[in-house]
Amino acid sequence: MVTSGWKVGTVTATRTQTPTGRSIDLAVPGWPGNVAGQHVDVRLTAPDGYRAVRSYSLASSGPGESIQLAVDRLPEGEVSPYLVDDLRPGDQLEFRGPLGGWFVWRPEQVENVQLIGGGSGVVPLVAMVRSHAAGGSAAKFRLLYSVRAPEDAFFADELAALANDTFELTWAYTRTVPAGWPTPPGRVNRELVERVTFAPSPNLMTFICGPTGFVEAVSNILVDTGHDPARVKTERFGGA
Amino acid sequence: MPANLDGNVLAGPLSEVFQFDSTTALVECMHCGDVKVFAVAQVWEDPMGLVARCSTCAEVLMTVVETATGTVIELRGIASLRVQSEAVAD
Amino acid sequence: MSIFTRGFSGRGRDNNPALPPGQYLTEDFPVLSAGPTPRIDTDVWEFTITTESGTVHRWNWEQLMALPIEDIHTDIHCVTRWSKLATGWRGVSLDTLFADVDTSYEYVMEHSYGGYTTNVPLADLLDGQAWIAFEFEGEPLDPEHGGPARLLLPHLYFWKSAKWIRGLTMMAEDQPGFWEQNGYHMYGDPFKEERYW
Ligand SMILES: Cc1cc2nc3c(=O)[nH]c(=O)nc-3n(C[C@H](O)[C@H](O)[C@H](O)COP(=O)(O)OP(=O)(O)OC[C@H]3O[C@@H](n4cnc5c(N)ncnc54)[C@H](O)[C@@H]3O)c2cc1C
Ligand SMILES: [Zn+2]
């Protein structure tokens, strides 16, 4: 279903998630509900009428009139510093959505799912993990989550708490590892992918999301290691 | 270095004009004949407008410009567009 | 109807009376990108002017460098609302390049490596108003900003200054280029705010 037009939501809560990022809860009267993986376009309007529009994934899914976003602040960015530093409960935000019907996971899907996220690219994948946990789906989920340092992870405690025999969580640290971590920091590479993610299979769907460079690198590794490109879905957030 | 986005980001701007979800639509490239879902197109976010290019041959499929008075969409490189119904959207 | 966002003003958007209407000053040089950046070696680079008779005037890099080179100091204005003041360039005047070109057509289509096009009246390219520029602030023009060479046509919005320029084609009538087909103005005078049609 496509819903166009701009809606207004009211910020109900914000929570610091990382040194540079936070989650934002909004109440949106008339929100039609959304599928895990969808996003919204947020529109900010300055007093002189100038507007800036950016896309943000929904960390929430399902019915109900409250939604959740999670935003990482980019240095010198126009919109993300406002959302991370200035927005406060009671403020109104305009947005359109829910948007996108391709980079989504529905609870009725039965195949196993590999999620691979870099930085704030984990946000739509968190919606999928939550949807999977809520629905008691028998599909097996794995998340490989790449962050610069342990403190940079969004929803870290919640993800750790959700891990069970149908959801496996693996961390990759690119700059700083926690004390006692067995391997040095480094980018997600072929060796790690082959060791911790599901092997290629017609019964597998993979979702990769994050900065464009991350998505390109990881999807190339997957295709090189025998994954069917039609079973690897990608969403690029831009940046380097 | 600017990096490209992909067709997922077109969902919002195109929702202003089309009733269907553009990301699951099948697009046939006029230049190389390849058929792929719109979500995998390369999208360049030029501040003047969005430029969608074929992920196979990099030629321009579509441009979207938000002018002062409305949205201008040009489908210059699209030979055909097949809109998928909800049931087969995956 | 839209709501205003409390405390949001946008990036560096204070008005400056020295600038064309609706523009703000920027210190950096934002990169616009409608596609992958073409990388053209000066060994294979060439520039052409094609007239109605089918005559093609052609310059390779070495020939371009042998022509009189001018220093240009000028303001530039992008339709996406940033302006830069007193930028320094080096390039060859289009008056020099058109000296031996025989044409009665009044319009020009600029063509770039990578496929970009933009249209301009011939009169706007002559009389010391336009250059093929290959140096910016004392450095070779880098590929992100249109190197090895771009058109420099500073009295119009900057999208009329085609990056990665490869040739000009004379036209009997004014026809729209890449952005002009998509809602942008056929002429693009920043002082008249000719952004869209
Ligand atoms: C489908 C989709 C979903 C997304 N979901 C999320 C999400 O869930 N969470 C999230 O955090 N992000 C998400 N993003 C990214 C988000 O849309 C923004 O791109 C991001 O927040 C940066 O916006 P910004 O306005 O802060 O930065 P921008 O102003 O767009 O700038 C981006 C970078 O470029 C530089 N820059 C650009 N122009 C200039 C200029 N003129 N002067 C100086 N510097 C400049 C800045 O330094 C900055 O680092 C998503 C993107 C897409 C496409
Ligand atoms: Zn193609």
Question: What does the largest sheet of chain B look like?
Answer: 5 strands, antiparallel
Low-confidence stretches of chain B: none
Please give the count of helices of chain B: 1
Instruction: Indicate how many domains the architecture of chain A comprises.
Output: 2
CATH superfamily of the largest domain in chain A: Nucleotide-binding domain of ferredoxin-NADP reductase (FNR) module
State the end-to-end CA separation of chain A: 32 Å
As laid out across the biggest beta sheet of chain A, the strand order is 4-3-6-1-2-5
Can you give a write-up of this model?
- The complex is a heterotrimer of chains A (240), B (90) and C (197).
- Chain A has 240 residues and is an alpha/beta fold.
- Chain A contains five helices and eleven strands.
- In chain A, the strands form two sheets. Chain A has a six-stranded antiparallel sheet. A five-stranded parallel sheet of chain A has the order 9-8-7-10-11, sandwiched between helices.
- The radius of gyration of chain A is 18 Å and the shape is globular.
- The mean pLDDT of chain A is 95.
- Chain B has one domain (4-82).
- Chain C has a single domain (44-192), classed as Sulfite Oxidase, Chain A, domain 2.
- In chain C, 5% of the residues lie in helices and 31% in strands.
- Chain C has two helices and eleven strands; from the N terminus they run E-E-E-H-E-E-H-E-E-E-E-E-E.
- In chain C, strand 2 and strand 3 form a beta hairpin.
- Chain C is globular.
- At the B-C interface, strand 4, strand 5 and strand 6 of B face loops of C.
- Zinc ion binds at residues 29, 31-32, 34, 54, 56-57, 59 of chain B.
- Zinc ion is lined by residues 29, 31-32, 34, 54, 56-57, 59 of chain B.
